Structures are given as structure tokens and as C-alpha cells.
Fold each of these.
Amino acid sequence: MTSRRFNKLATRIGFWVLVAVVLIYAIFPFYYAVITSLKPSSELFSVSYWLDSLDFSNYAQIFSQSSFVRAIFNSILVSISVVAIALLLGITASYALGRVRFRGRTTVMLVVLGVSMFPQVAVLSGLFEVIRGLGLYNNPAGLILSYTIFTLPFTVWVLTTFMKQLPQELEEAAIMDGATPWVTITKVFLPLMWPAMATTGLLAFIAAWNEFLFALTFTLSDHQRTVPVAIALISGGSQHELPWGPIMAASVTVTVPLVVLVMIFQKRIVSGLTAGAVKG
């Protein structure tokens, strides 16, 4: 009896130790970035894990740069546009793939999944030629197009999996009432798909918000760049100075909104990702 109690206590202690290690591993980099952003330049290279005072000079410096503020606006515009387009196309495609029976449906789904596996660098040169040919180089529309190409497959896959689990009786009742496919999607299925839409929309937003390679390649001027590129191009007073304080302040500024969004929609994210895992 004593041995069993000891093993149970040891298991519980080991579990919480593991949880603590995972939390420290996940949270400490962000925590250190926050305290670094709140230190003056003279204290950046003195190692300390606590703040003696708050210094917002790094934040004042980055927000005094019009290019950084413009980059935030560009990122918001591009990310919201990508989410809207991906959800619109994803919902209509998921209805066709999840509710309409036709030959080759499984093949289409496999192709959709296969497209999402291509690394960005593999299609960079070809996509650059397409964007330049369309006249979208150094234009937010070029980023919206390229980001949508890579976020749409995952969106279609998740929404299709969710769409397949909706009761067939709902669609049959809508058809009996004379509803068109568009009315069935928007009035019947859409209210039930919020968990999956929240998941795919948030993940598409995060992907577009954090994307760096396409933003660096397809934009040229400060007026059109997004936040990740703007942070990478923050420079110091000389070519030998790396301004860690402003870089950390900019990183915290663009990370906090994502953390807040994830905390708000965390329950919907979990329910959306597990949609279709259990049938019935």
C-alpha cells in the first residue's frame, strides 16, 4: 500500500515537473524578449531576468518610424484579406468536396493536401514570375495572392472534414424547402461551422502575419513591406550596431495580438482541429 502511494506521488510530481519544464521552455523566450524591450540600451548586455525599472524608449523609437507603422497596417490588410478569401473559397470548396458526390473526389482531396506540402522556396522563382507578369510586384495584392495559395489547401481540408460530419438530414430539409446550394451553405451549414472557421481563419491569419520569405521577395519599398520584413531591416546608429532593444520591442508588439487572439479562440481552435476525429 505504501509502495503504491509512493509511486502515485512520484508520478504526480514527475508530471508537474514535466509541465513546468514545458512551460518554461515555451514562455521564457517571449518573457526575455519583453524584459529586453523594456531595458535602456545601456543595460541590454547585462544579464538579468528581472526589471528594476520600466523604460519605454525602445517602443517610442519604433513607433516614431513611419515605415514600421505602415508595415503594421500592411500586415493587417494582407492578413485579413487572406483570411476572408481563404474562408470564402474554402467554404464553397468544402461543400463541393464534402457533400457532392462525383468521380475523382478523393483524388482532388489528395491533390489539395499535396499542394500544401510544397516548401515555399520550391515555388518561389515560378511564383515571382507569375506575380511580375500580373503586375503585382511591390503590391499588397501580390502578397495576398501568394499567401492565399499556401493557406487555402489547409483551409479546404479542415472545412471539408468538418462539412462531412454535418447531418445529411439538414441538407435534405433545406432542399425540400427549395433552398439553393448557396442558401444551404450560408443559412444552414455556416452557423454550425464556426469552430472550424475560427480554427482555419486564425491559423491562416497567423501564417500571413508571420510570413517572411514572400514578403521579402515580392516587395521592394518601405511603403509596401509587412511587419516581419520591417523588423529584419531595423538598423542601428552604425553598420556595426545591432539594435536589440528596438528589435525586441517590435517583436513583442507584433506577437501580443496573436497571443490575445489564440487565448480568445482557444476552445474553438481545439474543437475545430478535432472535428471529424470521432464519427457519430
Amino acid sequence: MMKKKKWMAAIGITSALLLAGCGSEDAGSDSSTGGEKEKENTFKVGVTQIAEHPSLDAAFEGFKKALAEEGLEVEYDVQNAQGDANNNAPIAQNFVGDGVDLIFANSTPSAQSALNATKDIPIVFTSVTDAIGAELVKSMENTEGNVTGTLDNHPEAIPNTVKFIDEQFEGKTVGLVYNSGEQNSIAQIEMVKEAGKNTDLKFVEATVSTTAEVKQATESLVGKADVIYIITDNTVVSGLDSVILVANENDIPLFVGELDSVAKGGFAAYGFDYADIGYEAGVMAAQILKGEKQPSELPVQYPQNLKLVINKKAAEEMSIELKEEWDSLAEYLE
């Protein structure tokens, strides 16, 4: 009788263990399915950026904010070319090989390399000055491809800057330092010269190919330029400290192309917040990832809310006397 009870108990224990084992497998299966579903609902976005710079970084933050507010789960693969255009192509090619859902290109060279790498994966760009001239899109309204985005060139920014220099400063020779290998820069220099046609201004140029050349190029303008104007050139802006140093030492007013460079020590700029154009690019990306729109259905957008900002400390460093009439035109950084 005792043997029979022991045998029955053994069967009970074995059955319980088998049931427990089945229960554990089901739970693991449920957990795995949940993980797979979560992974399926997560988008992979490749981020390619030409260099580290406050404006570009702000644009990326705005981009991420927009996607988060749209309720999308996103895994970002962030790659920085460290100011070397030769790094853009392999970055883009790696994104294609990885099969990302979308590429966010944060600069003109980044966007060009991304488009060269794929005609299938959606590309959303920002911090681009001339999307048509860079051959990214056919037109602002109809991009006719897998790419769209937002520009960092307000139509009135350069004309307003040139007009301000012409009307508010006695010196009429403007020094320009830029990378002649950047389509973004070539387009802006042409705009500067076009805006200067109806003024008394003359322009003297110094070109660079790397950030290491920026200081020497700027020094070459001393004695020639009454004012220096730095557009949103990625190479030069990466070496802006050198430009500011030369401007301060020689009391040359330094105009810049965006507000972050004003905060860094430039005298003045007509600009906007790069976080805003990044955010608008993020809204576009969300529409694409959700399947609501194709890139070709989203027109390229200009930045909004242009404003003049003057750095008072920089004005003092460059021996610029602030005029009372500027109070109604500009915002001041103390």
C-alpha cells in the first residue's frame, strides 16, 4: 500500500512539473512575441551630419522632438562626418546596407551623399541652403523623388544683411571667407553678390578647403575688408573661433549667417532657430514613416520667424558703437 501511494505521488509530481514547464514556455513565447511586436513598431532612422556645430545639433534635437510628439518609437543611428566630406558617402552607404527606414541628412553634403546612395529609402534633409542648386530636388513644390526637407536659408536673410551693412556702416568693402567646394556656400555667395548690386559695397574673397585654413584666410582680409561676413559655411563655421579672434584683434565688424554664431561671438545676424527647421523636418519624417505621405508629396519648406540679433559684448570687442535706431530693429544679446 505504501509503495502504491509513493507511485501515485511520483505521478502527481511529474505531472505538475510538466504543467509548470508548459506554462513557462507559453510565458516565454508571449514575451518573445511582445518583444517582436515592439521591434516591429520601432523605426530605424539613420542620421548623417557633416560636423559638430550648435546649429546642426539644435536641428537634430528639433527633429527628434517632432517624432517623439508624433508618438513614434525611433532608434537613431547617428553618424558625424567630423567636417570631412569624404566621410559622407560611406556613412550613407552603410545606412542603405542596414536597411534603415529613413535617412535624416543634416547639411547639404550629407543630403547629396544620401541621395547618391539610394533612390528608394526616404530622405529628409535640413540645414540645406539651395536644394535645387545642390540637385536634391527638381523644384520646391514637387521634389519628384525620395527626398524632401527644410532649408536654412530664409529668402530675406542675406538681402537684409547686405542692406544693413550698406546703410549702417561707413566701410564699403566686405570680406567673405568660405569653402568654394561647398554647393551650399557657392549659392550663398552668389546671393550676397546679387544683393550687393544695388549698393555701394564691394566684396573681397578668401577661400578655404579645410577648417585649419580658416584663420590664415581671415587674416588675409585684414587691411582689405572693412566688414567681414561669414555665411552658413560648414567649414568656416567649424573654425569660427579663429574668425572672431581676428575680427576682435583688428576691430572689424563680423556679421554671421545664423544666431548660434552670434551667441559664440559674432556681432550680428539675421537668423532663425535651427531647432525650428529641424522640428519641421521631423514633422515631414513622421508623415512619411506613418505612410501618410511620400517625400514627393511634401514641398520643401523655408524657415520662418526671421529676426536680427546683435551681440553687445561682441560690439564692444570690435569697437562698434551701437546706434539708438537699432533698438527698434534688433534683439540684443547682453
Amino acid sequence: MPVSTLKEVVDRAFAERYGVPAINIVNDLTMEAVLAGAVEARSPVIVQTSVKTVKSLGSNVLASMWASMTAGIEVPVVLHLDHCPDRAVITECLDRGWNSVLFDASVLPVEENQRQTIEVVREARAHGAHVEGEIEAITGVEDGIGSDTASARQDLEVALRFIEETGVDVFAPAIGNAHGVYTHEPVLDFQRVSDIVGEHPIPIALHGGSGMTQAQFSDLIRRGCAKVNISTALKITFMKSSLSFLTEAQARDKWDPPALFAHVHHDVAALTRDLAVQFGSAGKA
């Protein structure tokens, strides 16, 4: 099966009301493990890279990893650039083969955000790629992008005008969600998703998914959240899995890097499988 497009993956999820895991990877091991977990679950998956990861590993390296790991893959997969305010990085990634980008101009006035998003959509279309847009910053700092200060929410009319004028394929509204670790169960504005979808049927991206309850996921997916972002949960799984293995290795004074990699791979793949089941995408490939 060839690499899919964002629109193909999320449009079906939106129509059938399930969520597709959109998971931020941090290196080759996590990319391979996320893809393996999706294959085991027979689930579509959106592999996401932050700007920090792109700059750390290099777009050429990431693109080569992606091409190698997805050759002949049996489930729909998408490579997405997450929360990118830098137009040059968007161009670089589109040129290297990313087929989906989130242009994050949420710190700009809505009018300027809209103007530039129209340009990004035009650029992406020339590459056969798709675009996620947002007009409000999601609370929390993720890989150096964002703010811990909640941004003001725009009126429904402003959101609808942005969606219609820009032609974005996915929209990410602020609904009380946040990046990072929740200190308590988040209070979410479920109705805002319904209001947007009711006026303009468009797949919604749910950011800050790590730490939400199953009831919250299920409710939001039923309302139209077709893309469910997971970043913090992968980082925690990656670090804790590594820590537990290394703690045991130290106690036994036995040092086996390939075994460490296999241990972490297993846990990250299991996380991906569990998310696919949780969001209803398992078996949809």
C-alpha cells in the first residue's frame, strides 16, 4: 500500500466517526515502533515530527527513514509536520516528502494568520500535500513551541471564515485542551467542536490528547475529532521504558544495547496499538 494522504485518512475517520492516532516520534526507533504498532492493529496512523525533531535529526535523514520504513507498508500512513510557525521549515519538509503540515501562525492576528495560511495551502497543494490550520494557540509548550498562557478563543464566525477562506483540510480549535501533562482532568468545551462541525463539516484535530479520559476521547471523536494528537505519552513511554531497562541492567551489570532497543520498541508499539483500540481506528486499515 502506498503512503496515503492526510485527507484520505481523516475524511474516512470523520465520516465513520473514529479517531486516527497522530503520534509525535523522536527518532528512528520510535518511528519504526509506531509504524509496527499500527500494522499490528491494522490501523491508519499519522506519524508526526516536531520542528525540534526536524532540526535535531535533519529533514533528509527523517525523509530517508520514512521512505525506507514505509516501503510496502500494509496500512495507511501519513507524515505530518506538527506545529510549525516557520515558513522555511514548511517548505523544506514539503520538498523532502512530508505530505501534511500544521502551519501554526496562532500568535499572529487572525487576518494575517489567514493570509499566510492561504499561501501555505497553495504551496502544499503543489506538492500533493494537505494542511491543518489553527487560529488559537493550544496552551502549553511542546518542543519549544507554544505558551503556558491560554489564548483567547475566537468567535464561531471567525473560525468558520478562516476554514472557508483558507481551504485547510483539518482544523484545530482550542477547547480547553493543553500540551504536556494534565495536573487534573481537563474541562473541555465539547460543544465548540459540534458547533464548528455543524456549520462546516471538517475533520477536527484534537491536540493535547495525552492524559484525557476514555469518555472524553469517545465524546469528542463522536463529534468530529478525526485526528487525535499524542506526543507526551510517547515521550513518557520512551523514557520510562528506557529507564526501567537500564535500572535492571545496572543491577545485573549486564549491558546489551540491542536488547534495550527491542524493549523500548515493544513498549512504544504497544502504546500505538492501545491508542488505535482506544480511538476506534483498529481494524480500519
Amino acid sequence: MSEALLYFIQQLINGLTIGSAYALIAIGYTMVYGIIGMINFAHGEIYMIGAYTALIAITGLATLGVTWLPLVLLVALVCAMIVSSSMGWAVERVAYRPVRGRHRLIPLISAIGMSIFLQNYVHLAQGSRNIGFPSLIEGSFRFGSPENFQVSLSFIQITIFITTLICMTALSVFISRSRTGRACRAVSQDLGMASLLGIDTNRIISATFVIGAALAAVAGLLLGMYYGSIDPLFGFIAGLKAFTAAVLGGIGSIPGAMLGGLILGVAESMTSGYLSGEYKDVISFSLLILILLFKPTGLLGKPEVEKI
């Protein structure tokens, strides 16, 4: 293979890695919007708290002398998912349920306020500096001639791909096969009718926030290890990108969130590789604007049908 092709493959791998994590976070945005038609702008901070929780768990296990990698990863993941899920449940109870049914601007302001509160809480509790995140999964496969450019596929990238695939598959099966998943689809179709049919809509909405927060925690652990550091603004930027991915793919559509995340990740990687990292946000949001101009519902979104 030519060096140019190898370089392209490397950027594609990098983009799919970041895009997979964006897709995990975007699921939270798209599920909440699909159920109650609102945007959870505190979702990025929940992802950030998941990353901090995972780091605290890893540090605690290291202090106790626990070094077996599968156990460390499992405990960190479970702790992050529990704390983030609890936080997602609390955000729904505190910031959304009291204002549900009012003008859409009120829940939006409430969510932004919760986002700022969580940012500052972590800022006060953990400090504003970058904190190193241990790269627990090291090593890589290399392809190509050592004399020329080599394509690197690291073990952490493989882990991100596999974990994302497992999470997406499990979520798809849960939504399509489980009783709670069918209730989620019913509530997204018609909240009032679902309530009349005996579905506990408050429980389903809370479950949606919890599921989205758990997936965000998975992404927090994975991207923490991938980037090697976290800070209180770690969730704001990633949350904004994931929201962009959800809108790009069609907010309210779970496959759209997956597709939007991958497209956004590849666009950023290609821009960084062929132009400059300074332009990656410009290209990403320009792509979003173009999609919204020519297909306002997103790539896989469906136009809303007004119920009479």
C-alpha cells in the first residue's frame, strides 16, 4: 500500500474511535428527546462525572494493591455506571419533572442551570487542573513497512470499538424485546395515551435518563483512558459534540445517533490529519449546518406528525 493510503486508514481508525464514543454519549440526548421532546444539556456533565468516578475507583483499587486488570476495569466501570445513573435519575427528578409540561424554554433553562451546577461542583471537589488518567490498556498492532508510515491500531481503540458494539447491540435488543423497552417506544409515540393504557410514564422517563447516563459513563471511562487526562470541562466539549452528532443523525433516532457520532468523529479526524486540529470544530459544525439546511430532521430522523 502507498503511504498516502496508509495515512488515510490511520485517520479513519482514529475517527471511528472518537465517533464510537460520541455515539454512546449521543444516545442519551436522543433517547430523552425521543421520550419527552426535551434536550438534556446536563448530559455532558454526567459523562464527565462518570469519568471522574472511574478514576477514583481505579486509584482506590491501586491503593489497596489490586492490580489485576480485568477486575480493575470491571469495578471502575460498575462504579461509574452506578454513580452516573444515580445522577441521571436525580437530574430528571430535580431539573425536569417539576417543569415538565410547561413551555419548552423553562426545562431548557433548568437543564443549563443543572449543567453549570455540576461543572462547578466537580471544579470545587476535584480542582480545575487536568488530572492524569492511567492508560490501563496498552500496546498496539502495527501494519505497514517500518521504513515508511505504519498504521497503528491500539488495544484501547479495539476495546472502544468492541465495547460500543456490545452496548449498542444490548440497547437495541432491550428496546425491541423487553417490556420496559416496548413501554419506552409507546411513551415516545404518545405520552398521554401510554399513561391512559396503564404505563407508569414517570418510571419510563426516569429509566430513559438512567440508561443514557449509564452509557455516558461507559464512554467516560473509555475516553479517559484514550486521552489520558480529564478536567471539569471534559464533559462540556464532548457533550456538545455528542449533541451535534445526535442532531446530525436525526435526534430522536437511536440508529441516527450512532451514525451521526461516527460521521462526526471521522470528519474531525480527517480535518486534523489533512488540515489542522484548529479547524476540526469548524468543519464539524459546518457539516451540521449543511445537513440541517438540506435535511432539517437529520440523516435518519423522521418529520414530526402532529397528533390531532
